[in-house]
Design goal:
By secondary structure, the chain is mainly α. Helices cover 57% and strands 3% of the residues. Bound molecules: coenzyme A.
Length: 373
């Protein structure tokens, strides 16, 4: 008989797998992908270079990245027109944006040839992992706007440019593409959060990689995980002008409310993604940047006074909201856009799980009653 050990609530602090994909060091305000500082990658590399690093293990040279970018673009063009149309209809019928995306990703499994990875050779698994993540921008845009199927062939090859093109139907400004790309790179992976853990659990069963993606997206949809970056923007709208920030925030704290975009489970410093995206928002300019900066300063100061015992600093969602808004991503698409980049991380974890797989099967402790019969 094996003796099971009780795990802490929420599995907090428990190591359940080894990984060579990345790590978060909350006390240092640092996270990395395969040993490369993730915020440096976001500042200096294209999305496809970092995607290649995650999926294939190394940063590509110029030839490799061109081929890789083309490979991803070719997958986007393989999304069937009837799936694009059905996704648009679902969105128009009032379905929530993340639900629409989840349904579309699930419906893409068969036309894209998804099969249990246990039946696939490693090269086929990689191909599936790339293809399923690559179609994310098409599926999000399909929910948002009619005519996406017609624009697929003319969309630019780099993913960030294609995403903005498909969302708007127009050629995006280069500054918007670069800003979105920084956001996407910075949000690919972030330790064994609930959705990434879900991806590994489902992958451990040998399921197809579309099932992995859909399950992870389900985990991300929970308000405790995917969050609501749009709420930070709602707060800025409600505050309106820098002069009103102090009274607004003090009132919210007095009512016992949490200030959106502040605090983090792991970071005991400023979230490094927030610093990156603040800089990105500054580069983009605009009225909202000045307001966001003033509100950030006020909130930090008030939170310091409110909870001197605890570091409650700005997190990724605050500045992500400002950047996504500035590049023209509509508020309801903030979390689906997060899913577009996080899908790259989920697929990397699924592929890693396939390398030394053992089905995840923990135990539970029965604490209920016994019948007398
Ligand atoms: N505003 C005001 N108070 C906050 C706060 C915030 N943004 N974040 C945490 N606190 C307070 C909590 O009320 C709690 O007080 P208590 O001990 O009296 O109950 C204390 O700080 C610790 O909170 P806790 O929930 O243990 O922190 P956590 O590390 O588990 O939670 C978050 C992290 C992100 C869930 C939390 O900070 C939060 O809800 N932030 C706002 C939502 C947000 O920005 N989400 C995006 C995260 S990327």
């Amino acid at each position: 008989m094996t003796t099971a050990t009780a795990a802490p609530a929420g599995l907090e602090g428990l190591v359940v797998t080894d990984t060579a994909i990345g790590d978060v060091r909350g006390d240092e305000g640092f996270f990395h992908y395969r040993g490369h500082d993730a915020t440096v990658l976001a500042r200096t590399r294209r999305l496809e270079e970092v995607w290649h690093l995650l999926a294939l293990g190394h940063l590509p040279d110029a030839v490799e990245v061109t081929a890789f970018t083309g490979r991803l673009a070719a997958w986007r063009e393989r999304v069937p027109a009837d799936l694009v149309a059905a996704t648009h209809r679902a969105a128009r019928s009032g379905a929530d944006t993340l639900t629409t995306l989840r349904t579309a990703w699930s419906a893409a499994a068969t036309p894209l040839g998804a099969r249990p990875w246990l039946d696939l050779a490693p090269a086929e698994r990689l191909d599936q992992a790339l293809g399923l993540a690559a179609i994310g921008p098409v599926l999000v845009a399909a929910g948002h706007r009619a005519g996406v199927a017609d624009d697929l062939a003319s969309a630019p090859a780099p993913t960030a440019a294609a995403y903005l093109h498909l969302l708007t139907g127009a050629t995006p400004p280069a500054a918007h593409v670069r800003a979105l790309e920084r956001y996407l790179v910075a949000t690919i992976d972030h330790g064994l959060n609930a959705s990434t853990f879900t991806a590994r659990v489902v992958a451990s069963t040998g399921a197809d990689l579309a099932a992995v993606l859909v399950a992870a997206l389900g985990a991300l949809s929970g308000p405790l995980h995917g969050g609501a970056p749009s709420r930070a923007l709602d707060m800025l709208d409600a505050i309106g002008t820098p002069g009103r920030a102090e009274a607004w925030v003090a009132d919210a704290l007095a009512r016992g409310e949490r200030i959106m975009g502040f605090g983090h489970r792991i970071y005991r410093t400023e979230d490094p993604r927030a610093a990156l995206l603040r800089e990105t928002a500054r580069d983009l300019g605009g009225d909202r940047f000045e307001l966001a900066l003033a509100v950030e300063t006020t909130v930090r100061e008030l939170l310091r006074r409110h909870r001197p015992d605890r570091v409650l600093d700005v997190n990724v969602e605050y500045w992500a909201a400002v950047v996504l808004d500035a590049v023209g991503v509509p508020r309801p698409l903030f979390t689906p856009t997060f899913a577009v980049s996080r899908a790259i991380g989920w697929m990397a974890h699924a592929l890693e799980q396939t390398e030394h797989n053992r089905i995840m099967r923990p135990s539970s402790r029965y604490v209920g009653a016994f019948g007398s019969g």
